[in-house]
Backbone:
């Protein structure tokens, strides 16, 4: 897998920002290589952030592994943390414009909305307790917006 | 999601526990030092339940959900 910085902006590219001490990077590597083999139309580039600190700074890479997808030279997604093979396939599809990037699941949304509602109602009827209401509204908003930690 | 290391029942339980602790702490059911402790401590199960990831599980390489299955 190439380790130089991406050069061809016209080609869908996934850049993996990694570091030699990153355990999650090493754990994800076999899956990344397997998916990359299956989808040669996507260029995969590994960039060692320790060896390329200026690149990491310019790109705002705050952790490893960070996967950054580029299509037509523009960044289309960025995810920090280890991904399993199924998620990597989704990202490879996303960088080619085939599907949206993975969003938070249905269960997560239902759990967050339900928790937010319970907290808000509980806070409203017991007092009202405004900190509880505030937390409930935040949790509810996170569920409704569908914010993903991925 | 590889990130998630909690099963659905685990997450629901944590969220429920978090809500109860927060209610006890913030709602004035428990007052004084214990109330403050509960008001703070309640966020731990709530957040870990909502996110689906427990740092202690990760530390001890434990998980209550099934390991990720290769989609291939």
Residues:
């Amino acid at each position: 897998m190439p380790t130089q910085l991406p050069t061809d902006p016209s080609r869908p590219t996934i850049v993996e920002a990694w570091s030699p001490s990153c355990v999650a990077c090493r754990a994800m590597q076999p899956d990344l290589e397997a998916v990359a083999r299956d989808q040669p139309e996507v260029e995969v580039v590994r960039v060692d952030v320790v060896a390329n600190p200026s690149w990491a700074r310019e790109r705002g890479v705050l952790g490893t592994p960070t996967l950054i997808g580029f299509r037509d030279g523009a960044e289309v997604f960025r995810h920090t943390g280890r991904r399993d093979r199924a998620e990597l396939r989704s990202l490879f599809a996303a960088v080619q414009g085939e599907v949206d990037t993975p969003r938070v699941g249905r269960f997560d949304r239902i759990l967050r909305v339900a928790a937010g509602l319970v907290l808000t109602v509980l806070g409203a009827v017991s007092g009202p307790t405004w900190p509880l209401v505030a937390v409930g509204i935040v949790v509810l908003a996170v569920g409704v917006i569908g914010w993903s930690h991925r | 999601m590889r990130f998630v290391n909690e099963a659905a029942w685990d997450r629901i339980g944590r969220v429920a526990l978090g809500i109860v602790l927060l209610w006890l702490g913030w709602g004035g059911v428990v007052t004084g030092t214990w109330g403050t402790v509960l008001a703070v401590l309640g966020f731990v199960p709530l957040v870990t339940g909502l996110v689906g990831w427990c740092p202690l599980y990760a530390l001890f390489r434990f998980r209550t959900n099934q390991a990720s299955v290769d989609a291939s």
Observations:
- Chain B has four helices and no strands.
- Residues 8-26 of chain B form the longest helix (19 residues).
